[in-house]
Amino acid sequence: MNIDGVAYRSVWVDQDDGWSVRILDQTRLPWTVEILRLTHEDEVAHAIRSMQVRGAPLIGAVAAYGLALALRRDASDAALERVAAMLGDTRPTAVNLRWALDRMLKALRPVAAAARAEAAYEAAGAIAEDDVETCRSIGQHGLPLIQAIAARKPGKPVNILTHCNTGWIATVDYGTALSVIYQAHDAGIPVHVWVDETRPRNQGSALTAWELGRHGVPHTVIADNAGGHLMQHGEVDIVLVGTDRVTRQGDVANKIGTYLKALAAWDNDVPFWVALPHSTLDMRVRDGLREIPIEERAADEVLNTTGRLPSGEVVTVRTAAPGSAGANPAFDVTPARLVSGLITERGRCDASEAGLLGLYPEFAALAAE
User: Fold this and answer.
1) For this structure, is 244 an active site residue?
2) CA-CA distance, 239 to 291, in Å (whole number)?
3) According to DSSP H, which parts of 9-76 are helical?
4) Going from the N-terminus, what domains does the chain have, and what CATH number goes with each?
5) Pfam families, per this entry (predicted)?
6) Which of 51, 109, 273, 348 sits between 20 and 30 A of 119, alpha carbons compared?
7) pLDDT at 368 over 70
8) What global pTM score does this model have?
9) Which among 115, 88, 116 is positioned nearest to 102, based on CA atoms?
């Protein structure tokens, strides 16, 4: 990612001391770019729960570094298992978190305690590098979709609707669905992005719009419920979203509101594509609607909103009627039948077990469980 001419990733080890971990505080964006220094696994857990870091691939990488931080102080078998379990409990829906911690445990259990801390940093770094290359490849495999649309409407921009944030700051770098958009833009294809605000935390209007603006991508922020209207009037060529978990039959768990976009896209014959890294696949789960746990976040996120006053002060204010209760499911599940296809680092495929196993044959044993 590039912020005001400076290259960043979304998580990195501090070069000054060689062991602490740095992240961008996403709760302060888009108003302030603030870098946090994490030195303890409890700080990492808080950053994930509070959404100082968010995005399924990123929280997996940050949790991996959190385990490495813990093993600097106590590298025993008991500490390894205890901290991994604690970090794994911070967010329930995104499978990348559990995937990253399982990968860390598999790498570190055989290592002697004296060598574990160093091995943990190496393993966490490998997870981060894997995510960067994976997201770059996702963009490459999604690019032909945009090129094909552009060829059908020469001289006109490709209008893309996205939901939530799937960019640099949801991953270690590049993004998932936004990786496709960035690579199309960088290839000289005229694109325009409709950015859903993504209530209640406004990851679209706050984070995606901020990212696209920094990269110079034309975009327009819209209310969450405007997408269907735009599709009815031919103003959307393709919907590109990310995901926090994909089941073996191709069901997609993503930020609340994704299902409604998929329904509108289906009704208006608009392609609905989902971009994901391999770490988001959960081949042990078949029926997403019945089996994926949906995180219920604090009601205050729905009842209140945060913004900046003309003075520059950032404040949180109550927007719901006094005395009203709030419900805040953070994700919903889009059935595979509504998904045009999946974009992965290995290519594109149908949202189906056969499609996924065509790209990931090594997961056949998991799918059979």
Assistant:
1) yes
2) 25
3) 41-49, 56-73
4) 2-130 (1.20.120.420), 141-367 (3.40.50.10470)
5) IF-2B
6) 51
7) no
8) 0.94
9) 88
